[in-house]
Structures are given as structure tokens and as C-alpha cells.
Amino acid sequence: MRKYDVIVIGGGLLGCFAARSLVRYNLKVALLEKREDLCTGISRANTAIVYSGCDTKSDSLKTTLCVKAAQDFSRLCSQLGVRYNKCGSLMISFGGRGDEVLGRKFEKGTVNGVRGMKMLSGPEVLALEGNIASHVRGGLYVPETGTVMPWELCLAAAENAAANGAEISLNTEVLGIEPGRRDEEGYVLQTNAGEFKARAVINCAGMSADSVLALAGDPAVKIVPTLGEYFILDTKASGHIGHVIFHEPEEKGKGLTLVPTVDGNILVGPTERPFNQGESEFFETAKEGANLLRSLVSEVIPSLPMEHVINSFGAVRPNPFIQTQNARGAWVTENKSVNDLCIIESEDGKMISLVGIKTPGLTCSNEIGLYIAEKISERLGAAQNAGFNPQREPTVRLGEMKQSERAELIHSNPSYGKIICRCRGISEGEIVDAIHRSPGAVTLDGVKRRAGTGSGRCQGGFCSQRLVEILARELGCSTEAITKHGGDSWVVAAK
């Protein structure tokens, strides 16, 4: 049995930042992830926005952490070597209802401590974003909004956690949780990879967080998913917007969101629809959602070149609902979801579950990690780790280097002179580095999340074959063993 002070369950943004925060203390930490790689669930597909905290409930933990996180995000990304675009946002309205909503958000943001907000007239909005429909009535400018690549952020946190001593165990699914045996404190976790013992447990299992909570005998929260669709526009559309655009619709419902990504693409979406039990996959897309996005684009920013759509994808949002027992002892789900951060603590305070953490979960991931790590360190009596190093060296990105720097790098390592992904200009050296990082890529999507291959205009049409060959060579396996995203998603059926 492997023994640790703290075990983190789940390798998404929350789990990776929890592990990174815990190794700030003298604690032996492990992170268990049931999939073949990190960042494969909720964290892999979202709007990638760093929110300012201007539209969350005042005097809540969510708002406190969100505002602090947004104001500190540039420093965090600098520490982790992650790209961050503090582009600011424009919330726009086209009618009376929208004007009222923006006014309320301005007032709330002021109370919450969001800096630099401004209410704008229609002409002032058009002066900042000239491609918005000309009948725009007004806007709310928020300079502290930004965009980041979720994959980069998550994997950077994991790498930094591992560099500071955290152990990451992939392909390790938690099947049971029971109190420590023989009067020992803590918990015993049964997994498909054997038993693990921990003095404390942090449950960051994403869409399975309620199931993990139930394994520990506490079915007090149930996650009800909602799904959404996105479009990605090619970099040919880059520059069409300069800010994150939030559209406040006149009719009740979800408006349009447009995001200028750090890669130069434009992200359009998401929609919002319930998850039907007949659907087999959280990340599928629906035709109705795609049609709705196109319709909203034609209203809000009609000149956006939708002919440059290169991909669409689905995302899932975990909505937590409190469950209570009725007179017969059955657990009944309440009708209203939890609006604040749903953080459930066990009676002894040594199991903390983050259940249904949705927007602004990405923004708050580091602050949530720090918040729970401080609680656990106090309860376990752990001192701060004087050797903790928050810095992570950024990955090499050939396309962002000066010509002289490229030449020097290629001279020292010729593999950086072999371009594999033509759309993004990504070299074999960058791909090999992605495979051999800790933790490294073992699938096509794993390389994509680390190096960016397959995310350009051809969506892997040109480079996938070479990627399969490089993965097989570096991992010492056959090409038939390589998958797109784990499981049975094999790329090559047979030779």
C-alpha cells in the first residue's frame, strides 16, 4: 500500500492546482487521474476566459477568490510560463433590458472591488470594436478580463507540482474510499492500481466528484450537467475583435460570447442545453446549437467571417444540486442549484470535495487550491516548504522565437528544424519535448494540448500520420497502439 499525507483525486485544473498548492507545505502528495492524461474532462473544453468578478454575488467566497485571482493572473502565468492575454472585455446591449443588466453588473462590480470598469455609449463601443452591429446601444468595459489556454494552464500547474515533489499516477481510478484501518487516521482508497493510504483527501474529480463524494458515504450533492457548443475560427479571422465580447440578449437566455484566443483564433460560443440521458458523450455537438450560434453572430457582429470556421466542439458544465433525505430515507435532489463554490468538508475536516465548480472555476483554480491547501496544512500540522519553487520554464515555441534564436536552437538540436505541423509551424523537437515532459503526452490529443499540433486550419490532416510515427518511436510501441484520446480511439487499425 502506497502512503501519502494527501491524495488529490482528479487531474483537471482544480486537481492540478490543488496538488501545486499542497506541495507548498511539507506534505507527501499524490494526484490520481483515471484517464491516460491530465486535462481530459471539463478543463479541456471551456471558454478560456479569466473573469473579473463583476457579475458574481457580492460577499461570497466565489467573488472574493475570483476578484483576487483576476488581479493576480498575470503574475501566476508569468510564474508558470503560460501565455496570457489581458485583453479586457466588452459587455454589450442592444435594448432596454440589456442596458439594465449592464448597469446592475457595473454596480455589483464596483461593490466587489473590480478595477477600471467604464460604462460606454454605443458610439464609444464602436470606437473600440468597429465590427459590432451598428445599432449597439451601450457597453460595459472591464479591463481585468483576459484569456488563457486551459490546457497550458492545467499542464503547467501539474508540471510545477511534480517538480516540487508531487507524484502523479495516471490510469488510476478510485473505486472505493473507507476510513483508515486499525484505528489509523485518514482514508484508504481502493483503485484499479491497488490501494493508497492518505491522511487527507481532496476530491477534484470533475463530473464524477459527486460519485466520489458518495463513495465516502456522503451523497449530499448531485451534479446535473448542461452542454454547449462552440465554433473555432481560423487565424485568418484574427483581429476582427480585440476584446472578449459578451452579448446581453433582450430576451431571457444565453447571449453570444466571442473570445480572441492566445493562439490568434476566435472562439464563438457557448450555447446551453440540458444533457439528455440518451446521449452517450458529454462533448458531442448538436446541429441546433450550431445554428443558434450562427444566428446570434449575424445579429451581434454580422461581418465576422464564419466561412473561416475550422472546428466545432462540445463542452460540459457541472451544476451542483443539494440532496436531502426524505422521511423514507431516500435522497431527493432540490430544485435550485448551488450558486457559490460548492466545497464540502467531512466531519473531521480531512476530506474536502470540490463538487460542481463551474464558471469562474478556471479563473479561481489557483486561489481555490491555495484556500484548501491552507486548511489541510493546518489540520495536518504541516509547516511551509522552504524549498518550494513556483517557477516553471516555459515550453519552446519555435513560432514565437526570433530568427537568430531559432537558428541557434536548430544548430544545437536539428529536430527543431523539421516542421511537422505546417499550420502552426511546430517542429519535431517541440513534439518530442511534449512526449517527454513530466507528465508527457501519450496520445495525439496529448501532443496537441502541449505543443499545439492539429489545432490549425487543416486540423491534423497533414501532420497526424507523422505524429503517430513519432509517438510510437518515442514511446517504444507500435503505431497500432497509438490513440487519439485514449481508450479505443486507435488511429491505425492494422498495418
Which residues sit in consecutive blocks of at least 5 with pLDDT less than 50?
none
Largest sheet: 10 strands, mixed
Task: State the secondary-structure class.
Answer: alpha+beta
Counted by DSSP, the helix tally is: 12
Approximately how much beta-strand content do the residues carry?
A: 15-25%
Q: What is the general shape? A: globular
Question: Summary?
Answer:
With 495 residues, this protein is an alpha+beta fold. It contains twelve helices and 23 strands.
Keyphrases for this structure?
10-stranded mixed β-sheet, 30% helix, 8-stranded mixed β-sheet, globular, 12 helices, 495 residues, alpha+beta, 24% strand
Structure description:
The protein has 495 residues and is an alpha+beta fold. It is 30% helix and 24% strand. The chain has 12 helices and 23 strands. Strands 5, 6, 7, 13, 14, 15, 16, 17, 18 and 19 form a 10-stranded mixed β-sheet that branches. Strand 15 and strand 16 form a beta hairpin. Helix 10 packs across helix 12. It is globular, with a radius of gyration of 23 Å.
Q: Would you spell out the secondary-structure blueprint of this structure?
A:
Layout: E1 2-9, H1 13-22, E2 29-32, E3 49-50, H2 61-80, E4 84-85, E5 89-93, H3 96-112, E6 118-121, H4 122-128, E7 138-142, E8 146-148, H5 150-163, E9 167-169, E10 174-179, E11 187-191, E12 194-203, H6 209-215, E13 221-233, E14 244-248, E15 257-260, E16 266-268, E17 273-274, H7 287-300, E18 309-325, E19 331-337, E20 343-345, E21 351-354, H8 361-380, H9 403-412, E22 419-421, E23 426-427, H10 428-436, H11 444-451, H12 464-475
Parallel strand pairs: 1-2, 1-12, 2-9, 5-14, 12-21
Antiparallel strand pairs: 3-8, 4-8, 5-7, 6-7, 10-11, 11-12, 13-16, 13-17, 13-18, 14-15, 15-16, 18-19, 20-21, 22-23
Helix pairs in contact: 1-5, 1-8, 2-8, 10-11, 10-12
